[in-house]
Amino acid sequence: MRIVSGGVQHETNTFSKIPTTLADFVRDSxxxxxxxGGETIFERFRGTGSIHxxxxxxxxxxxxELVPLLCAKAQPSGLVEKTAFDTxxxxxxxxxxxxxPFDGVLLDLHGAMVAEHHEDAEAAFVAAVRDVVGAKxxxxxxxxxxxxxxxxxxxxxxxxxxxxxxxxxxMQDRGHEAAELIARIVxxxxxPVQEFRQLPLITLPPRQCTLRDPMQTLMARVHQMEQExxxxxxxxxxxxxxxxxxxxxASIMVTTDGDAELARAKADELAGxxxxxxxxxxxxxxxxxxxxxxxxxxxxxxxxxFADGSDNPGGGAPCDGTIALHALIDAGFKGGVVGVIxxxxxxxxxxxxxxxxxxxxxxxxxxxxxHGAPVERDAYVRALCDGKYIYRGPMMHGVQDNLGPTxxxxxxxxxxxxxxxxxxxxxxxxxxxxxxxxxARRLLVLKSAVHFRADxxxxxxxxxDADTPGIHRPDLAAFDFQRLRRPxxxxxxxxxxxx
Length: 499
Ligand SMILES: [Zn+2]
Prior knowledge:
It is built from 15 helices and 18 strands.
């Protein structure tokens, strides 16, 4: 048995003005200029906490030959340029044709990609693959928990398997599950019947977290459902809210073995469970002033984390916001750290000056005027590094990544880790390489909404979801939706959902 695999992953924030280019995918995928498949992908992902890591282990367990063709990924940002999307899809389709014959296709997609010419970019991707392989070839798609899934995408894929966790610590498990499932389909052991439900519901990152209730309990129920006779897999996609397209928001899927009636019944049941949680999914936000007061009043509570999700690059925000940094400096707060601020210009300036130098900086606030003004002050260069690291925490464990030349500065009494690449700080290793031990600090401002909880959560005495402005602010009132389907809760008053 031969199964091909691949995909293009992007979470597109349509409120971002920064277009996503082919060069962004080439830089962030780390698979060479033409995004090589084959051995490059085996070397990069084998044994790692990634979807392809799971495809590789699943292929070994099921005893089939895996042929990886492409694994493209770019940091979340604005619309994917037409040329970028068409070029990568073109490469994938060309490689698919070269590798024929094969028995099935595993697609590693995100589910919230929006291209300039395709509002539903994943459906366009899978449709192009269908054109090559035909209607009968099994296609199993893995998607992020933040996928905004359309009915068309659900129709095009035989099975969709979504992540069950946020922070996304089960990527390898879901890739492995997809690989074992497609092998059973090809062998004729199972006949998947997938039922999809889109809910009139849009939710925000802080409460989508599966380490907290209500999602923790919901996912435990989903796992019980997956153990029921006849059920093959079930998915809850909470959606990526910062995309103004009709399909943004929550959806669910249940796949059974050949039983359409059971699939419909279980899909209704699961959709009902999620719908019943709609009020509990609304976040509570805290200002930086209140977080500082808490840290000062509770010195024995350990590290306080201020999760500045509004400026989360993992959802397309600039990662150079300065609202919290300005407040820490103005308050003369002792023991504050901000990680990571993306500012290649300041990082380069610090690298030229060297450790021990004092330099006049204009730090952060450069991408737009929505996330705070630059901090203009003298800064002391405390440490420098090349920015290369391996994820050591539970998420993306073992994957190599790069912050680019990085500087640790002391600015107005606050320690700031300044990177040359835009990366969400969700692994403590990203601070340790910069000489910062978070446990030894009082208040840590992280440019992350939820993912940081996997690795930093156990180190924190208290975590606050930030009340800051930005294009990833967990507050629907801050956005002007034009294309979103209506009515939708909580933007519209929906007393009940008729399904
Ligand atoms: Zn996600």
